[in-house]
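Following up on my earlier message about manganese (II) ion. Here are the inputs again, as you asked, copied directly from the submission form:
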Amino acid sequence: MSSGDVVGPVDATVVPRFAGPPTFARLPALTGVESADVVIAGVPFDAGVSYRPGARFGPAHIRQSSRLLRPYNPALGVSPFGVRQVADAGDIACNPFDIPAAIGQIEAAASQLLQGGRRLLALGGDHTVALPLLRAVHAVHGPVAVLHFDAHLDTWDTYFGEPYTHGTPFRRAAEERLLDPLRSVHVGIRGPLYSDTDLGDSERLGFMAIHCADIERDGLAAAITRMTARLGSAPVYVSVDIDVLDPAFAPGTGTPEAGGMTSRELLAVLRTLSNVVGADIVEVAPAYDHAEITGIAAAHVAYELLSVMAKEA
Ligand code: MN
Ligand code: MN
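Thanks, got it. Here's what our run produced:
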């Protein structure tokens, strides 16, 4: 698609930002464009949470908080909605009571959205949704480098005997060989664990861990260098649990942990990425948010991810 054919967001000089469609960044709906390079989809599912519920309302909250985004990204020198067709596919309908059924629905819908070489940005939902999204991405790209931003490892085996929860998606993904075990990395890990074996388990499943303590000790540039070397030239799937940010920057989430990244640090890391074939932003729970702090952070995370995708799509 040539950039001249691209349908962008509603013009904010004509329709003020607090008006207009409730799509992400007031972009066109997928049904309103002939084709798309990058698709945004909501995944309003939170039956996999272990603590505070409410991430099912995340997609609508992130969209609401995205109204103020402007079309040009000066940090990357790109107009993400101008050089590529980005469109909002709405929400993936999934069963709020039956986790395996919901996982199947999310995988099927994501597979359809990825058709024709499109890239997908999913707005969660709790972190359970990363598993079906990764299955769909794997079906197109094979094993991908998983770049996982989170306070938590999410490589635990089960909760209350249940294998499919928001604390287990990356163990399941490793078992299913959806990720490249030499290229995957956690960023932002911190806080108390269940056991001294948790970190070793995560490493054996294929994740290098960059802890918040590493960023504190060595600086952000060193962390980016380690991350970039680990990812190599593999196709990258980015999964952003918004609790990677300190509760000061993202209070509206289900399992907050003190001592996290700043939103400025996270956005800076995202701007260095390339080869991003898919991404999700999860665990935004608006009931615990204040003044859209978390929603705005998530909308800007989405904007940087769309920008790095647009540079290459
Ligand atoms: Mn987390
Ligand atoms: Mn998580």
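One observation from looking it over: The longest helix spans residues 293-310. Hope that helps, and feel free to reply on this thread.
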